[in-house]
Amino acid sequence: MTDRVMRAREWARPVRPARREVLGSVPQLEQGRPPLLFVPGFGHGAWAFAEHWLEHAAGRGFPAYALSLRGHGGSEPAPEATLRAYAHDVVQVAAELPRRAVLVGHGAGALVVGHALARYPARAAVLVAPVLGGWSTLGAALRRNPAGTLPAAFGGGLRLTPRQLFSRELPDADARRYADRLGRAGRRAQWALLNPDQPEAAVGRPPVLVLGSPDDQVVPLSALNRAARRYDSAPLLFPGMGHDLMLDARWREPIDALLDWLDKEPATRPGA
Amino acid sequence: MPSSTDPGRPDPDPTVAPTRDGRPVSDRGDTVCVIGAGASGLTAVKNLREHGFGVDCYERETGVGGAWNWRHDRSPVYASTHLISSRPFTQFPDFPMPDSWPDYPHHSQLLSYFERYADHFDLRQHIWFGTEVVRVEPVEGDRWDVTTRSTGGYGPERTSRYAAVVVANGHNWSPKLPRYEGMEGFRGEVMHASSYKDPAQLRGKRVLVVGAGNTGCDIAVEAAQQASHCWHSTRRGYWYAPKYVLGRPADQVNDTLLALRVPLRVRQWLYHWTLRLTVGDLTRFGLPKPDHRVYETHPIANSQLVYYVGHGEITPVPEIARFHDRTVELADGRSIDPELVVFATGYLPRFEFLDPALLGDEGGQGRPRLWLNAFAPGHPTLAVAGLVQPDSGIFTLSHWQTVLFARLLRARAARPERAAAFAQRVTARAGERYSGAVKDSSRHWFEVGHADYLRAVERALHELEGGK
Ligand SMILES: Cc1cc2nc3c(=O)[nH]c(=O)nc-3n(C[C@H](O)[C@H](O)[C@H](O)COP(=O)(O)OP(=O)(O)OC[C@H]3O[C@@H](n4cnc5c(N)ncnc54)[C@H](O)[C@@H]3O)c2cc1C
Ligand SMILES: NC(=O)c1ccc[n+]([C@@H]2O[C@H](COP(=O)([O-])OP(=O)(O)OC[C@H]3O[C@@H](n4cnc5c(N)ncnc54)[C@H](OP(=O)(O)O)[C@@H]3O)[C@@H](O)[C@H]2O)c1
């Protein structure tokens, strides 16, 4: 394990604050369960979780929150945002919650969570269809969506198509509506996806769950397995679903599995 | 999270052998005892819990936050106290202060920060408030008997046996008050800065402030604004560093240089040069010339002192020679007639509950001899947290000290050979210093440079975990 104790560069150049959007849904009765903080991937905002998952989690007794990374959703515009600034946003929101939170990252939000875990001892972490970056991410994206990906490789916006994000079960109107809401990540953060710094070791040794779909058109199964192996586990799979598991027609299954896992995991059981 | 013992009132358990003098002892098994719930104690509780240990923390006051809890009788903070270290250097490394806070938060914000830290990590259930530790004694098997009683001294004493002890009792609550000839006969008011709370105490009076630590400088500035006259007595010249240089908090500029590994001499030169450009030559105001280079005394961060000296609201004077009934005679022979003398002469660390020899202080000089200012030779299950006077925020240092101790305790069970090698290093390196040259003074023996110190802790962690 490598603990980085001396962080002169970080202290000398603190991340500039940015106004953040945080949406939340809390259970009617406090049941001692840990709060969940959902971190959307690039292009998505807190809205993606407000659609179904926040309320569903609250209904099962978990206080549930989602933030929009700077430059996304209702947060302050931030075209020059870096991965570090995104991780900073996550840690800021997590530390403001009344109790130690579970971080849930989707897509490239999982990479952001990976970095945040080195700066905040989360109670647990869940990586949903994680995009952890590297050239293989680009390769997969190029193979599946050359027209949307190529401009990104030259600094343009990454365009994901509705068919990459959702299964055919999702009505077209919904798919279009969601796709229209997509924005884009900061140029520098997008570049950093190609060659991301390895996150430092997580502090506080949180248990980590990986889940995704073998039919995800953004994250191939091999990437899911690789991500899970990093944390000595195997991914939970939801065949037939698209990349955006929280918006797709069968959104209930993955969130229920996630909450079941938290209910069983000793670190996240009420009173732990 | 695995907990070796359930939290619960450590009631005396009659099945356990009594202490040497025959009192019953309750055996707390693998539980670790933490003394104090200030910043250092809180981070000790959190990090020990995070590493799977049961913890009993004793706090003689009724709340968390230690020095930063102004409700506590012994809190040294006064109404206007703001941090001297900027936010990134002050917050714990894994629990940031809110973005919306200023660069230099107010002491009430610090208290709310520690209260939120305690709640966020659910630490209060492990803390016994209103309970004072009166004795800590080593017993067989590197374990410890800790005797407590209700604060104030009433009620029975109880003794519990622990696997390890973290001493986090702070070092800014026991006033250091110098004595002078004729002091008893002085008709004016004399107080130590620890009882200074509010500028109203200075209003309209002729005030003499003694000492130019950060406390003395803050109080001199308030006296400049409130008192009818303010003298500021120092026994040497200092570097009065502004809180902002080059448009940024000064400590952030300094760490930019540290990140680039700029050597100390060059940093000192740059610092002298920046000060010359900003505050200028102070001797023309009558301030003595510093008898040392910058960083050789505990840094002062105060942008206002020089300003008020320049406006004639603070009169710098030399050391006190003696007191007369209505006047104070100074070392240069001058006499002044203050109505109130505030001694901002600092604080002394105290460990009354512990035999000084346990901390390597055989002569009882009040200067423990430890490795990393935390680990005592021959006592592998004892650690002190927060016994550092850093040129920066202290909480990050306490955090890593207690992480290191938690890892050491874990290694004792899982990798005893590593724990043994660590113990050897403690013995070999006790007394090591982590700063450049400093002026000899009662306050500088535990001065540390945060960069040197944290790098040493980082190495110690890597060595313990079998890295390089
Ligand atoms: C005016 C002022 C301003 C400061 N500003 C800064 C700053 O800007 N940045 C910075 O990093 N530091 C600053 N400091 C230094 C300050 O000491 C630390 O910030 C911090 O308070 C140290 O925390 P601690 O937990 O080690 O000690 P403390 O805060 O003193 O806490 C020790 C706790 O232990 C308890 N205790 C003591 N003995 C016993 C016993 N026998 N039994 C049970 N409980 C016991 C006490 O009641 C107390 O709650 C400042 C200090 C002063 C005086
Ligand atoms: N705003 C803030 O955040 C803030 C405010 C106050 C304090 N603090 C911190 O709290 C700690 C304590 O600070 P402090 O200012 O109370 O104490 P301090 O740093 O110990 O300073 C004491 C001052 O009194 C002088 N002195 C000591 N004994 C003396 C004697 N016998 N005769 C004459 N002068 C004497 C010292 O001179 P020498 O130079 O000779 O030692 C020094 O100038 C420090 O870590 C400080 O940084 C922070």
Task: Supply the key terms.
heterodimer, A: 272 residues, alpha/beta, Rossmann fold, seven-stranded mixed sheet, 12 helices, 11% strand, globular, B: 468 residues, FAD/NAD(P)-binding domain, five-stranded parallel sheet, 23 strands, binds flavin-adenine dinucleotide, binds NADP nicotinamide-adenine-dinucleotide phosphate, hydrolase (chain A), AB_hydrolase_1 (chain A), Lysophospholipase, alpha-beta hydrolase superfamily (chain A)
Task: Write up this protein.
The complex is a heterodimer of chains A (272) and B (468). Chain A is an alpha/beta fold and 272 residues long. In chain A, 38% of the residues lie in helices and 11% in strands. Chain A is built from twelve helices and seven strands. Chain A has helices spanning 8-12, 47-50, 53-59, 83-96, 108-116, 135-144, 146-153, 162-165, 172-181, 187-194, 221-230, 252-264; strands at residues 21-25, 36-39, 64-68, 102-106, 124-128, 208-212, 236-237. Chain A has a seven-stranded mixed sheet with strand order 1-3-2-4-5-6-7, with helices on both faces. The longest helix of chain A is centred in the N-terminal third of the chain and has 14 residues, at 83-96. The relative contact order of chain A is 0.16. By secondary structure, chain B is of the alpha/beta class. Chain B folds into two domains: 25-173 and 348-464, FAD/NAD(P)-binding domain; 188-343, FAD/NAD(P)-binding domain (3-Layer(bba) Sandwich), CATH 3.50.50.60. Chain B has a five-stranded parallel sheet with strand order 4-3-2-8-21, covered by helices on one side. In chain B, strands 9-20-10-11-16 form a five-stranded parallel sheet, with helices on one face. Chain B is globular, with a radius of gyration of 23 Å. Chain B starts with 24 loop residues before the first strand and ends with a helix. Classes of the chains: A alpha/beta (272), B alpha/beta (468). Bound molecules: flavin-adenine dinucleotide (FAD) and NADP nicotinamide-adenine-dinucleotide phosphate. Flavin-adenine dinucleotide (FAD) is lined by residues 35-41, 58-61, 66-68, 76-77, 81, 83-85, 90, 132-133, 168-170, 172-173, 215, 353, 386, 393-395 of chain B. Chain B: InterPro entries: FAD/NAD-bd_sf, Flavin_mOase, Flavin_mOase-like, FMO-like. Chain B: Keywords: FAD, Flavoprotein, NADP, Oxidoreductase. Chain B: Belongs to the FAD-binding monooxygenase family. Belongs to the FMO family. Chain B: Residues 20-29 have a biased composition (Basic and acidic residues). Chain B: GO terms for molecular function: flavin adenine dinucleotide binding; N,N-dimethylaniline monooxygenase activity; NADP binding.
